[in-house]
Batch of 3 targets.
Target 1
Amino acid sequence: MTDFDAERHTAKEFAEMQQVFDEEDFLKMVKQCKSIGYGRKISDGFHTLEELYEHRTVLLAVVVNLLPSCFFKSRKHEDGSMFPGYFIVMGTLCSGQISYHCEERYWDLFKCGETEFAAKWDGHSSDDVLDRITRYVQGQ
């Protein structure tokens, strides 16, 4: 594999090299991009990560605002911690608990209950959240 140098190559240029790389190589590339302030600008040629996260957050707000009794937002995890500049949106669907961390600038988009501390996290992973949302949409 050709070494990726974030200072010499954009992510698009690297993709155009048509190199096949594994997950470890990809994560190394992302880490290098983040280290020079380029992380949120990584693109698949159509959308940047920044755009995709913004879309995800606004779409989550639509869901929360349609089902406000199922969700709450909090500036602190159950243990009082939180990632700087973020808050948590947590919901309980019939298929299980889901949660997302969102940038503080989106706080007012979410028209749901507010709690001082988030509920206890049930240990769900990103895959669990996707499965729970899919099952909810399918009526399972």
Target 2
Amino acid sequence: MRSLRTWDVDLEQWAAEQIGQPFRWGTTDCVSLVKKGQKLIYGFDVFRVPEYKSKAKALRTLVNVKSLRSVLRSCASQVGRRFLQAGDIVLVGKGCSELETDGLLLVVRDYALATSPVAGVLAVSLDAILVKSTTYWRVNVG
């Protein structure tokens, strides 16, 4: 997979527009944000996870794909934390209290785009992501 020419600039601009948006299933939940960010980078949905618009359909989708980790394994490889770069994905074990499952964040620059049903979309410093059950992923290119 080749990234689009101006993906880094496009990603930063898009992420800035997302910060402060309210939480909405299918739009600003963690999977939807990461999918949209990856589409900006590569030009298509690298996850190939069906769209949804409600919590119930998000749960059904998660059951169908087995786990977020299995989705990542199909299109990405783990990287070390010190090698993080824009476009990488952070998988936080049990990071989604709303679904009682793992949560995803998208690395933008020196921060990651995160979401919460209470706070909406926010920027989280990479230094603040120190959870033991966290893994870091980079979409496979080439």
Target 3
Amino acid sequence: MQYYIQRIVRNSTELEAYKKDTVEANALQIEEQVNLAKVHARVEAIRIAPEEARVELLDQLFTEAQTIKNGLEIVNRNVIVGFTELIKNNTSLQEKVDFMKAELAKVNEEVAVVKAERLAREARKAKLAQKKEREPREPIKEEQYNNLLATIGFEMTFEAARMRITLALLFITGFRIGEVRKLLLRDIKSIFDSQRPCVALTTLKGKKYRTAHLSALGKRKIKPRKEDFRFILKHQKGDLDTHMFGNKKDHSRVTREYITKEINKMLKPLRTIYNGYYTSHSFRSGFIQYLWEETGDIELVRQELCHAKSDTTKDYIKDLSDRELSARISRVGLEEEEDEID
């Protein structure tokens, strides 16, 4: 940018120089006009001079006139060259000004992009800070899950059947919505395969494949969804290699944001009923809490969820209530006591 400013200043200086040359040329022309007037006066003097002196005076006058003529031609040529160069430099200067305007517009666009990115980053930070200030997210337990199914009802439509299976998958596997969205009907079919009673399905998580295993509760909860799956498979013309969340118009997958929005809409009544904060991620929290309460093995839960560190798993687990602690502790050593009685 500094380079182009320097060029404009330089061209402006050149323009002033050409203007100066033009003024000087005009001054010369005026001066020569005065000289021509003098020549006319001399011609008149020759006309009235004696005849013997006229020849010498005329030769002298013609010599001076030729000299003046040659000087005027030189001046005119210089003026023409000066104006030509001035026009060229004016055109070049305008082109450079236009170029600078275009470059300035690009700079403004880049600045606008940077400002937009900064505002978006600040908005994300504010949203994250607001999220941290919210009340803790409550886990979805069996009671809340049954309440959601009752809200959907038992109408056999594609949307209702798909939502019932989605809620079941979230509840019994702890999958994220993005992971459920990626599942093929072939993957979901494996849940109902009697030859694989423990292995639910496999989905891509990062660069690793995760296999979800069904608990006894999971098997009970997924069994009623078999009819829903058959209905969806029929709707998809029996193609097991399609997604459950295929778009009706072009068979592309429904976005994760849309699914999250629909589920969060269903969860709103739970906040009033159970006086807690529920989101779509509450299913994952509920699965982790249930698995830990049933096994007490944090490492087992970590491996099932494919967490890299056990600290991540611990963040999901809520402290037990006094009643739950009492019930859990009262069972400690119970099996050993029964063995002694036997």
